[in-house]
Design goal:
It contains 5 helices and no strands. It is mainly α. It folds into 2 domains: 9-94, no CATH class; 96-155, no CATH class. The termini are far apart. Belongs to the UPF0208 family.
Length: 155
């Protein structure tokens, strides 16, 4: 059985999703443009509220005449929700940037090069992904004081 080289295994995608969760900035202003920031907040919230939900489902099975299969399926589905979110983040982190974000990426990168934060190496094979954009946004926040490199001179 031959395996498609473009096909990534789930463990690698899961690890990329966890890494992407760590590099994404926690900013409400950006959550309007990037749905992954909302997904990250949902995953973090699920980690807090899932244990009581699972305990409630187990108690539901114990005290009410619920079918065991229904309870097990409900528990498995509940546990799978954060995993699904992390897998989605893994796919999203390696997705190519849409054209409107490529322009923003290039503008931020030029400003960081002008400030001598980044080196001006030209790599034509550089793959612009959402993960690379988030890393650049973090650098921009540290060194430029804003996310998309807007000029503060006009203010």
């Amino acid at each position: 059985m031959s395996r498609n080289p473009k096909q990534m295994n789930l463990v690698k995608i899961f690890k990329q999703g966890q890494t992407y969760m760590d590099i994404c900035p926690n900013d409400k202003g950006l959550s309007y443009s990037f749905p992954e920031l909302k997904i990250i907040n949902y995953i973090k919230m699920a980690k807090k509220i899932l244990p009581p939900i699972i305990i409630g489902l187990i108690l539901w099975q114990y005290y009410l005449p619920a079918q065991l299969v229904v309870t097990i399926i409900t528990i498995l589905f509940t546990l799978s929700l954060p995993i699904q979110g992390i897998l989605w983040l893994g796919y999203r982190s390696q997705s190519p940037l849409p054209l409107n974000l490529v322009d923003n990426y290039n503008r931020i990168k030029l400003q960081l090069i002008e400030k001598k934060v980044l080196s001006p190496n030209k790599n034509p094979n550089e793959k612009l992904t959402f993960a690379s954009l988030m890393k650049l946004i973090n650098l921009s926040k540290i060194h430029l004081g804003n996310y998309f490199g807007q000029d503060n001179d006009n203010q």
